[in-house]
Design brief:
Layout lengths: L3 E5 L4 H9 L6 E5 L11 H8 L7 E7 L3 H7 L6 E5 L3 H11 L2 E7 L3 H4 L11 E5 L23 E3 L17 E4 L12 H13 L1
Parallel strand pairs: 1-2, 1-8, 2-3, 3-4, 4-5, 5-6, 6-7, 7-8
Length: about 200
């Protein structure tokens, strides 16, 4: 069964409050923190404001691409439970975890089976391993069959241009599902109607 859900790329308070107050909220909400190439990137002042709310039981995730000490020092007092790290070596990941005392989602970007095996370098100090496409801000997919043989004991998340209609395909897979682009309108803004559809579907799956 699907383990839980993460909605990523939230950048405004209205959408955030809608998700938090939904009858079937996700377990995780992600905020793009330092990747300006992404239209979902949130400036620090906005990030500070929108994360300083009652999030109930939801875990807040700061999504970071090869973060500098400067940005990590800046956000360390914000309301985040997890740092989701892209392009960060195992050694650096462990340093971040120890210094900032935060839970880690290590993102492994996939094009082939060999890429999948990289999770072994991170699993001992990451609370979650995320398997994602290599598109970053472009929501690029990858062959999700490549992660079929991962250990059942691994706490794993999957992304990579997953659509709402793909959700039933994951009902027998033990993954946290991570969606972003599929929940946006043609202008790249989060669509509350699509979010509602997803949350209700997950509840039934």
């Amino acid at each position: 069964m699907i383990r839980s859900l993460k909605i990523c790329g939230i950048s405004d308070l209205e959408t955030l409050n809608y998700i938090i107050d939904h009858p079937y909220p996700p377990k995780f909400i992600g905020f793009i923190t330092n990747y300006e190439k992404s239209k979902r990137n949130v400036k620090y002042d906005v990030l500070k404001k929108i994360t300083d709310i009652n999030r109930k039981e939801i875990k807040f995730v700061s999504v970071l691409v090869n973060p500098s000490d400067e940005i990590l020092d800046k956000i360390q007092d914000l309301n985040f439970d997890y740092y989701q790290l892209y392009d960060v070596s195992p050694k650096r990941t462990l340093e971040i975890k120890k210094k900032y005392k935060v839970k880690i989602i290590s993102a492994i970007t996939i094009t082939n089976k060999k890429d999948v095996e990289k999770y072994k370098d991170y699993k001992d100090f990451s609370e979650i391993i995320l398997f994602d496409g290599k598109g970053y801000e472009k929501s690029v997919s990858f062959d999700h069959q490549l992660v079929n043989d991962l250990p059942a004991s691994l706490n794993k998340m999957i992304a990579g241009n997953i659509k709402i209609e793909d959700i039933p395909n994951f009902k027998n897979k033990d993954f946290i599902i991570d969606l972003s682009g599929a929940l946006e309108d043609k202008n790249g803004k989060k669509d509350i109607t699509k979010i509602d559809k997803l949350l209700n579907l997950i509840n039934k799956t």
